[in-house]
Task: structure prediction
Amino acid sequence: FANTVLPYVSLWVEVEANQMNGSLPIWPSIKAGVATDIYILNFASNQLTGTIPSNWLERGFSKFSTTNISISIQNNQISGELPASLLNFSATAAPNVINVQNLAFLAANNRLNGTFPSDFFTHLNWTFSAVVKFDFSNNQISGDLPSTLGNNGLNSSPMTVSFSIGDCPKLSGSIPSTLFSGVGAADSITFSAVGNRLTGSI
Result:
């Protein structure tokens, strides 16, 4: 499967709420020049273990453009640190990867640890028009929130922006003063950080 080159206009894999085990698979490449409308991987509520590979998503995003991206791995037993290169598509992506309507990366209720890479959110140099959602709640992520959170990488104002880091008891430090300063006039911004050790002023 990892050596397959897909000629399709969508990649949709949904195995939520089963008893799948093992680690996250290496995904097939998309045929060069294919404009992909949907890229959905839903592994939620299984028994997956292991870590997130550093180049897990790069194979697909280096060769196609897409409008809807949804990665769901919540409610598993995935551990390890968030790879700094996980969202770094800009170095390899084709120039036409600029118009993404929806982006969701949901990793709540796992065993992720370590800190947020300082430049984790700086590589999203695409144009978003609808929804941007990240959920890392109920993990063991520690350290400070990166100062880059929401203040660059978003080249437009999505209608909805949501970022959840609740119930990460090892997360500390202050909320960056530049939080979401790069989002612009979004219709709705949700920031959930309940049950942490954050300090400082609001």
Observations:
- Residues 91-98 have pLDDT under 50 and may be disordered.
- Residues 58 and 89 are 6 Å apart (CA to CA).
- The first strand starts at residue 5 and ends at 6.
- The radius of gyration is 17 Å.
